[in-house]
UniProtKB/TrEMBL annotation, chain A:
Belongs to the GINS4/SLD5 family. GO terms for cellular component: GINS complex. Gene3D superfamilies: 1.20.58.1030, 3.40.5.60. The lineage of its organism: Eukaryota, Fungi, Dikarya, Ascomycota, Pezizomycotina. It is found in: Nucleus. This is DNA replication complex GINS protein SLD5.
From TrEMBL, chain B:
The lineage of its organism: Eukaryota, Fungi, Dikarya, Ascomycota, Pezizomycotina. It is found in: Nucleus. GO terms for cellular component: GINS complex. Residues 46-154 form the GINS subunit domain. This is DNA replication complex GINS protein PSF1. It comes from Ascodesmis nigricans. It holds the Pfam family PSF1_C. Signal peptide: none annotated. Its main location: nucleus. Residues 168-216 form the DNA replication complex GINS protein PSF1 C-terminal domain. Belongs to the GINS1/PSF1 family. The GINS complex plays an essential role in the initiation of DNA replication. Keywords: DNA replication, Nucleus. Component of the GINS complex.
Length: 217, 217
């Protein structure tokens, strides 16, 4: 058993950045927990996809090889591959979910829009156009002109759905933060020490998540 | 009373959320609400025209309130229509993701019936296809295309794959409906009803989603 594993280790292609999987896992968790959409991790994804493709071609080239040691190795490779594929899929789907939910808000806020990958932006725009056409065709075409808009804010009710930045998130502190954290609208103020785990409003730690001082869990 | 029909649509939408299939499109109600909107708008325009631009609300509160109530009803009806259509679109999108397009819509909600029966029932007024409005069918088609384009960028990952984390490479499946022969790297498997196989999850993922196979254990 040991020598099989040793051989497996030796045979594994040396990767440029072994932490990519770990990073993407973190980004995926953060994406799932954060109410707003986070910056797209194009570089990590690209490197991972490259290796996924490498592994797939490795599998294809060793098809038909019936040597028991190597088929054991192949099962390990395939299992790993399925897991990475799941991770990437879950990450992308999670983003698409948020894009669908807040598309008008994203479209109207350039700062948020910049976080999307070009293909995500393309998807969002086509999707919005489709929905618009559908509403128009279904009933809006019979409406008076002034009632046809989909982004009204009349009567204090905005038609544009925005993420709730004050929703509670669980987070872990990675580095001590010197400045005091205050929560808007309350007199709560506290400092962040490394290793602490807190439940706070997302808005209070939003910037710290961005620079990596705090990690969403 | 104004708004009653809109309320009905909201109830339908609420009900749709908890159902597995898509109930038939309430074209009658939608038409009635749209008509109500047009009537209200006409009345409002007429009123505004008769009272002129120099109208002082405090001098004639009756007219002012009538205007306000009609105006709010207009907006409310619009919201109801949007809610109804949006909920249905979300459902349609969900079905597109789950089953790979219109085919899924055709036999979603009719799990007990065979595929052949569905094709026959397709011409029937009760057939699944007729539960969508023509506009919705068009939307479903276009969304499927959009989805296919989005998937095309991630062919190796398969965006519509399972969102359950993979545990084992191989799984036990039971065949619920005849699905013909599939090719795997271990050779061809003939999927006949009620037989049971130990196969690679990746090979049969799609068939499980479409309800041909059932995962065991």
């Amino acid at each position: 058993m040991d020598d099989i594993l040793a051989e497996f280790d030796a045979g594994a292609p040396s990767s440029s950045s072994p932490q990519d999987v770990e990073h993407l896992t973190k980004f995926w968790i953060a994406e799932r927990t954060a109410p707003e959409i986070l910056p797209y991790q194009g570089d990590v994804l690209e490197r991972l996809m490259e290796r996924v493709r490498d592994q797939i071609s490795l599998l294809e080239s060793s098809l038909g090889n019936l040597d028991p040691t190597s088929s054991f190795r192949l099962i390990l490779v395939q299992t790993e591959l399925e897991r990475i594929k799941f991770l990437i899929r879950a990450y992308l789907r999670c983003r698409l979910h948020k894009i669908d939910k807040y598309s008008l808000h994203i479209l109207q806020t350039p700062e948020v829009r910049a976080r999307l990958a070009p293909n995500e932006l393309g998807y969002m725009k086509s999707h919005l156009a489709l929905m618009n056409n559908h509403y128009l065709a279904s009933f809006l075409k019979n409406f008076p002109e002034n009632l046809r808009r989909l982004d009204d804010t009349v009567g204090r009710l905005s038609m544009v759905d925005e993420p709730d930045m004050d929703s509670a998130v669980f987070c872990k502190v990675n580095r001590d933060v010197d400045t005091e954290i205050t929560i808007r609208g309350t007199d709560a103020a506290f400092e962040l020490k490394r290793g602490e785990v807190l439940v706070v409003r997302y808005s209070a730690i939003r910037e710290l998540v961005g620079n990596g001082d705090v990690e969403l869990i | 009373m104004y708004g009653d029909l809109g309320q009905k649509l909201v109830h339908h939408a609420k009900r749709t959320q908890t159902l597995h299939h898509l109930p038939s499109y309430q074209s009658e109600v939608v038409r009635a609400v749209t008509r109500e909107v047009r009537d209200l708008d006409r009345e409002v325009t007429e009123m505004v025209n008769t009272i002129g631009a120099s109208f002082d609300p405090s001098s004639d509160p009756g007219v002012a309130y009538t205007l306000l109530v009609r105006h709010l009803c207009l907006r409310r009806n619009k919201r109801c229509l949007l809610v109804y259509h949006h909920t249905r679109l979300r459902k349609i999108e969900g079905l597109c993701w789950a089953g790979g397009g219109l085919d899924a819509l055709d036999w979603e909600g009719s799990e007990t019936r065979g595929v052949e029966e569905d094709i026959v029932a397709g011409d029937d007024a009760e057939g699944q296809r007729h539960q969508l409005s023509p506009e919705e069918e068009e939307y479903a088609r276009q969304y499927t295309d959009l989805l296919a384009a989005a998937k095309g960028q991630w062919t190796d990952v398969d965006l519509t794959g399972s969102l359950e984390p993979p545990r084992d490479l191989f799984i036990d499946v039971r065949v619920l409906k005849d699905a013909g022969e599939i090719q795997t790297e271990y050779g061809a498997i003939n999927l006949t009803k009620n037989s049971q196989f130990y196969v690679r999850q990746g090979d049969v993922e799609r068939l499980i989603q479409q309800g041909f196979l059932q995962k065991l254990g």
